[in-house]
Design goal:
By secondary structure, the chain is mainly α. It has one domain (2-151). 91% of the residues lie in helices and 0% in strands. It contains 3 helices and no strands. Helix 1 packs antiparallel against helix 2 (38-121) and helix 2 (38-121) packs antiparallel against helix 3. The chain is rod-shaped, with a radius of gyration of 44 Å. The two termini are 58 Å apart. 1% of the residues are buried.
Length: 152
């Protein structure tokens, strides 16, 4: 894009310089001889026409460059958004892993408590205390619900 724009501007500069030289020569020649040259007029007209075409081409190139710049900026915004989303996903995954480890710890502790309660229910460690058995049954129910919800 840069090469096209610079090439266009360079050609416009060269053509404008030639045009002004031709017009300058035309003025000095017409003062001396007082006639105008058809060849010179044709050259000036051709140069002017080419200069107009180059100016139009330059305007199109500038518009194309503007569109490219806008698309590039939009792409950069999308890249930043993508990176932000990836960072967020990484943070969520880390939190999920931490939660999973925490829940596994809770489940392991619950299984230990369940084993202790079952042992207590069968009277292996404690006597048959009704209060302990009802409290243990309550804990069993809670832990079984928790255990089922983490396994599903």
């Amino acid at each position: 894009m840069r090469v096209l724009l610079l090439g266009n501007i360079s050609e416009q500069h060269t053509l404008a310089t030639k045009l002004f030289e031709a017009l300058s020569q035309s003025l000095s020649a017409s003062r001396r001889i007082n006639t105008s040259s058809t060849t010179l007029l044709t050259e000036v007209t051709d140069m002017y026409t080419r200069l107009e075409a180059l100016t139009e081409e330059h305007a199109q190139l500038v518009e194309l460059a503007r569109k490219h710049r806008d698309r590039w900026a939009r792409l950069q915004r999308k890249r930043k958004r993508k990176q932000a989303l990836e960072d967020k996903v990484r943070r969520v995954l880390v939190q999920l892993q931490e939660g999973r480890r925490e829940i596994e710890g809770i489940v392991d502790e619950g299984e230990d408590v369940l084993r202790g309660i079952e042992m207590a229910r069968h009277g292996e460690h404690f006597g048959h205390n009704d209060y302990m058995i009802s409290a243990a049954q309550h804990h069993i129910n809670i832990l079984q619900l928790l255990f089922r919800s983490t396994r599903s």
